[in-house]
Amino acid sequence: MAETVTLSGTTSPGLLASLDPLLREWLPRQRWFAGKGRPVTGFSLVAATELLPVDSRLGLYHLLVRAHQPLTIGAEPHPGDCYQLLIGVREALPPRLAPALIGHVEQGPLAGNTVYEALYDTRPAELLLEALRSQARIGGLRFEREPGREIRTGLVPRVVTAEQSNSSVIYGDTFILKLLRRVVPGVNPDLELPLALAREGCSRVPAPTAWLRAELPEEQEPYVLGVLQPFLQGAADGWELALRELAKGEDFTAEARSLGRATAEVHTALARALPTVTLGHAQIRLLADGMTERLEAAAQAVPSLRPYAPALHSEFTALADLAAEGQTWTAQRIHGDLHLGQCLRPPAGEWCLIDFEGEPSRPLAERRMPQPTVRDIAGMLRSFDYAAHSAPAPAPDWADACRAAYCSGYAEVGGRDPRTDPVLLRAFETDKAIYEVLYEARHRPDWLSVPMAAIERYAMTDLT
């Protein structure tokens, strides 16, 4: 590997300036870019590492770049999210790399070259795996491997082209490398929780084989940049499988029950591996207040939600009232963003859970807080509802049957049926549906009817 150059802040000798006009156009078009709808006014360089020298046939830079955007339309630019970029440099792109094009550089140290998304290129992808295999240290980059886990050489890489909130490369149907795109310093649950589960012997989550971090002098904690895990060849994700069975008119309750058992196994292992806490009146009051604030903000943004707001608010008040009467709940580490698409089932295996990053829009400290397990359960129940409404003919009975089977499967392993705590479950389901209303109104208006139908049910139905 090449000698590494590490740059920070504004000390770059023109590298970022040469890329700036191209990144302003390219970055907002990426699925994983979080600041859509607000103009990018500039960039600041957090770190740059040269992995292959530009004077060779192929150059490669690893960049951590902060995008400057106004917090709201018309406001002053603000240093915003930090993104991980792998920039390939060639004189010209071969046709096979046309989808990876970022642009042709007109000025600065890369002038006259073409830059592109390097994950699409075999050599850069191979370099990442070799660095993980050899536990390389390149500038501030730390490629680390779990003791006792081996990585074979010669695995052919291919980038995953499906839309994702991050980026992934599959190596020879053996490993998958997930590269986080929007990064912050600190312990990332997408590495922390699978490692903890692996050390507890929980087979429901692919055990991390290796990972990539960045240690920067100006940050007290490193950035977690990527995780390498076994690739579950031929696995179908729960969303695809549910839609397939729906289209055929097939029953999904056996799968839902098995998925409930898998969820409970993961929760039980996390409770063994990491601390749990008791939530009393003060903590539940804060939780209910947060739900109420999200409801009020969503009702301001989505007028169709406003008629239901008083009834929805009562769901959160009921939870706070139970806490005021002395009821307590246990909180622990959870998945944080559980739905059918976060579950994989290999052709001849049992359900596995993936993607423990949580909701990337939430602060890292919040994503690492212990929470009631019912938050994960509510997310899955909402996912059944979404699947049922994605069929050519909506199938609410299908969703109800899946809901019952999932909760029963969870109780078989977890020892407690989540339906026996209806106030807590309803509060989290309502909070999730409110989030969905806001998301769909902003990004997929054609889907708004799905969470709005749930909102109407929650507002009109008494708990039983």
Multimeric state of these chains?
single chain
Helix percentage: 25-40%
Strand count? 19
Give the overall form: globular
The share of residues in extended strands comes to 15-25%
Instruction: Supply the number of helical segments.
Output: 12
Mind describing the biggest β-sheet? 7 strands, antiparallel
Supply the helix-strand structural class. Answer: alpha+beta
List segments where confidence is low: pLDDT < 50 over at least 5 consecutive residues: 1-12
Domain module count: 2
**N-end to C-end Cα span:** 64 Å
**Average pLDDT across residues?**
92
Return Rg in Å. 23 Å
Question: In short, what is this structure?
Answer:
The chain is an alpha+beta fold. It is built from 12 helices and 19 strands.
Characterization of this structure:
The longest helix has 22 residues, at 422-443. This protein starts with 5 loop residues before the first strand and ends with a helix. It is α+β, with helices and mostly antiparallel strands and 464 residues long. It folds into two domains: 6-230, no CATH class; 236-460, Alpha-Beta Complex (Aminoglycoside 3'-phosphotransferase, Chain: A, domain 2), CATH 3.90.1200. The protein is built from twelve helices and 19 strands. The radius of gyration is 23 Å and the shape is globular. The strands form four sheets. Strands 1, 2, 3, 4, 5, 6 and 12 form a seven-stranded antiparallel sheet that branches. Strands 7-8-13-14-11-10-9 form a seven-stranded antiparallel sheet, covered by helices on one side. Strands 15-18-19 form a three-stranded antiparallel sheet.
